[in-house]
Write a structure and sequence with these properties.
single chain; alpha+beta
């Protein structure tokens, strides 16, 4: 791999470092000053670009790196101050629209409310919640406590507060059970709330047709992104088996949907020269699916990433090239700089980037012998699972404090069931009008979900399946340096 051929990678490095620097020194950041500096450096870059000698000797490249570093700092600072300014001024009263289903806590209920300025807060309601509360309702509450999430006096809550702030929640508040009222909503107030109501309606249809209990919660989590009813034991079993990503709609599920559309519909109908038509059809299908599942942030992020990659594939026929991944990374951070702190975002791009870096090399190994041609599909699954598991392991250990030794085995065993469940769910909805076929598919889906759950519990119970390991940030970075060095030598060996 020639470094000169991937200019976007050289730009996202200072861009990302600029955001990291802004996060570390956010108290000293001024958005107006940063914007002025960006304009000045941009003017210098146009001046340096006039002469070809300047372009060749590297001065223009240095100015471009400085410019992207400042752009990253400016975008991050602007996002931070926008959420910070959304904190309610009045610490005795809050008003907002309910945008997520109420979540039951130990001694209260958590309501995520969207304020008039567009920023979210979490309102904790004491006691039992009233029946009939639905998305889009307006909540009025006299609060007892209000805590902004961008700072915390008690260090024990600092991590949680920081997590909330990076997900667009500016404050948390508490109201006694008798100090709040609700104004019901007759029509959805936004496209997002309308999508959430569609997701709840799909949940009701599932229950009406026999998709319920723990098997139903697994099916709903993997098909419509609703994880409200998932038990803690099921979540822990999937986590200890190293396959918790299966329960969260993300790039993994979007990739399966893209694969199913290509295999069952497009590859047999459209020639290669019409690939751009098939990609546009896939993009429209993905966004329709994202809407049906309530526009969950993880699925919207994954759909955006695949949209950019598929558009790049239409132009240069290589969706997973480093330049395509870098472009998707850059655009998504420009849309929301706080994606940088999202664990799913980090894992998605590490997995996709590693597959783009090493995937083609490993997949080409079987072409040297005709004996492996008929097992290309199995080699593809093993190669993709192996690469993504190895490259995401250090980051998973850093965040969750464990290293799962059987994650590759778990992915290989569970993947056919995931494919069967998602394909079966599509057929389930298509034959919803025919009770006899729909009942058979219901039994198939319930059996698949229960089998997945049983296999996962057995995998999680294997001795030494998970090793407790929590590397710090420097150790995690060192692991990725070693992986990149190994990748470089592996690519050089294959090229020679």
């Amino acid at each position: 791999m020639s470094w000169q051929n991937y200019s976007l990678i050289r730009l996202i490095i200072p861009f990302t470092l600029g955001m990291i620097g802004a996060n570390l020194f956010i108290s000293h950041m001024n958005g107006v000053v940063l914007f002025i500096l960006c304009c000045v450096v941009l003017a210098f870059s146009f001046f340096f670009l006039k002469t070809s000698e300047t372009y060749k000797d590297g001065r223009f490249g240095l100015v471009a790196m400085v410019l992207f570093c400042l752009i990253g700092m400016t975008l991050y600072t602007g996002k931070y101050h926008h959420i910070e300014k959304g904190t309610p001024v009045d610490s005795t009263f809050v008003k907002g629209i309910l945008v997520e289903p109420p979540k039951e806590k130990a001694h209260s209920w958590a309501l995520e409310l969207k304020q008039e300025n567009g920023i979210h807060i979490i309102l904790y309601i004491g006691g039992e919640i009233r029946e009939g509360l639905s998305l889009g309702d307006t909540i009025y509450a006299n609060i007892r406590h209000l805590h902004p999430t961008n700072h915390c006096e008690d260090d024990s809550f600092q991590t949680y507060n920081t997590y909330l702030f990076h997900h667009g929640i500016c404050a948390t508040a508490y109201a006694p059970h008798h100090q709040w009222v609700v104004k019901p909503c007759t029509t959805p107030r936004s496209f997002f709330l309308f999508a959430k109501n569609v997701q709840e309606r799909l949940h009701q249809i599932y229950e009406e047709h026999g998709i319920s209990d723990e098997a139903g919660s697994i099916i709903e989590a993997m098909t419509i992104g609703r994880k409200t009813d998932l038990s803690k034991d099921t979540r822990n079993a999937f986590a200890h088996a190293g396959i918790s990503h299966i329960l969260a709609l993300s790039g993994f599920h979007v990739g399966i949907i893209v694969l199913m559309i290509q295999v069952f519909f497009l590859k047999t109908l459209l020639p290669i020269r019409w690939q751009w038509v098939s990609n546009l059809f896939i993009i429209a299908t993905l966004w329709g699916y994202a809407f049906l599942t309530g526009l969950s942030p993880s699925l919207v992020r994954a759909t955006t990433m695949f949209t950019i990659l598929l558009l790049c594939q239409s132009l240069q026929r290589d969706a997973f090239s480093p330049n395509s991944c870098a472009l998707a990374f850059l655009i998504m951070l420009c849309i929301n700089p706080f994606y940088l702190h999202d664990i799913g975002f980090q894992l998605s791009f590490i997995a996709v980037g590693s597959i783009g870096l090493l995937g083609n090399r490993l997949l080409n190994l079987h072409k040297s012998s005709n004996k492996f041609v008929h097992y290309a599909w199995l080699i593809t699954i093993v190669a993709v699972s192996l690469i993504s598991s190895i490259f995401t392991a250090p980051l998973v250990a850093h965040y969750f404090g464990r290293f799962t030794l059987i994650s590759l085995l778990g992915n290989l065993i569970i993947f056919p069931f995931v494919y069967l469940l998602m394909l079966g769910s599509i057929l389930w909805w298509l034959f919803l009008w025919c009770d006899s076929i729909n009942n058979l598919l219901t039994d198939l889906l319930n059996w698949t979900a229960n089998t997945m759950s049983s296999i996962t519990e057995h995998l999680a119970s294997i001795p030494f399946a998970t090793i407790e390991w929590s590397p710090n940030i420097l150790t995690t970075l060192l692991c990725y340096v070693v992986l990149l060095i190994f990748s470089y030598f592996f690519l050089q060996i294959k090229r020679n």
